[in-house]
Amino acid sequence: MIWYPYTQMKHLKDLPKMVSGRGVRMNLENGRSLIDGISSWWAVIHGYSHPALNTALKEQIDKFAHVMLGGLSHQPAIDLAEALVRITPSGLNHVFFSDSGSVGVEVALKMAIQYWSNKGYTEKSKFLSLKNGYHGDTFKAMEVSDDSDFSRSFSGVLHRGFMLEIPKGGFEAGPETVQLAVQQLEKTLSEKHHEIAGIILEPIVQCAGGFHIYSPHYLKAVRELSKKYQVLLIFDEVATGFGRTGKLFAAEYADVTPDIMVIGKALTAGYLGHAATLATTDVYDSFLGDDYNKALMHGPTFMANPLACAVALRSIQLIEEENYLEKIQEINRIIKEQFRTLNSPLIVDKRVIGALGAIEVTDPSVLSGFKEFALSQGVWLRPIGNIIYLMPPYIIDELELVALIDVIRNWLK
Ligand SMILES: Cc1ncc(COP(=O)(O)O)c(C=O)c1O
Does residue 101 have its Cβ closer than 6 Å to ligand 1? Predict the structure, then answer.
């Protein structure tokens, strides 16, 4: 029997069973179909069963499905690494593959600690992160994430570092508005930098921790201060990457390059679990030397799986060939337009960026039963706490998007 994620199994009811998918539609065993409003945990950006992606996989599987990367190499991995270096912020020249976002984050944290220990600074081993941040479910990823339902049972054994508030004022906040948060950051860094290996954050939008959006001015300030106080800057773009915020990577809003960046989820367009941790040449160079112990000691069995690499490469081509950033702008326009007329005393805030819309309501109890209601209306939406959010596949059309939002509208009535 399956043990389902984030589920009190005692209360598990019959789950809808998907039998096929096409475009934004998930077809169920009972003959009904659902519009996917959240891209299967934000990954399925081209929708289901995309012909070009299916073909890329079929072509690769006829060559070979898998080979270890320890001691061997292969063209799909080489090509994907090249493509990732090309499309990510300039300076991230080295790509370490792994098999999930959480593991990609673990690799980033290990890289940061070992960067400093390879240089002789063994005391620099803690992390600074942001309140409401979420970086995955493995142990070190939980330590840099804020306390939440996802990690609460383990809070007694987690060794957390330093955690700061994001600035208020949302995306539009100017340099003065973010100043208080910047000062708090500088205070912590000036006092503790000798203990801190890195700062890890989700740039511009914190997703699972509540869809909070903050200003690029803060990101710029974090970059400057992390250089000034000699701590590495790690961007977790597992959720924000590949266009979700309206730029290919959210880092572009502040025009900054982190020292390390993690991507996952939409990397393979939801076809296979995969992630990558990219690093600058400065980070990479600190692992070079005659001493084997200076090398990066990590190697997931399925890193750079050729099927994952082949489908990721084709997905990147699709994003570029079909000008997805324009599609995302159009999704943004429709969500904003629809949200303008979506009003209820139960709504506390509406937040929109790129192809992401979030509605915060007064209390999680307002959304109790919402998922079932959405299902009955032919829509797949799954609130987190007191937030209903939309992160649809980028191929969604206007009618489908309006249908999704109408379900929210009708529920809040
Ligand atoms: C920002 C962020 N980082 C890391 C992760 C973990 O990724 P995975 O679920 O692939 O381990 C997630 C998952 O939601 C995420 O949103």
Answer: yes
